[in-house]
Design brief:
Length: 86
């Protein structure tokens, strides 16, 4: 059985185009807006990557650091991340 990721890449290969993979931090800028953003970009993206929050995203670069800090400041939890993903 193929994974959804494998199916997405196979679909892109069949259509002779690159895959569009997006990244967003769960809960940035609010939990509700995070869900709205994912719903909007899901119409165009082949794969959506949703980041779990962690308190030391230094290696991820300044944009992801800032997104993570905003989400943490707004009280986003691991449970919220799973609810957003669901």
């Amino acid at each position: 059985m193929k994974s959804l990721i494998s199916k997405a890449f196979q679909n892109c290969k069949n259509e002779k185009r690159p895959a569009l993979i997006t990244f967003t931090v769960a809960g940035d800028n609010t939990k509700l807006n995070s869900l709205k953003i994912l719903n909007t970009i899901s119409k165009y993206a082949d794969i959506l990557e949703l980041s779990f929050l962690h308190n030391c995203p230094i290696a991820d670069g300044s944009q992801i650091q800032n997104s993570t800090y905003r989400a943490l400041k707004n009280g986003t939890t691991l449970k919220d991340t799973f609810q957003i993903a669901k």
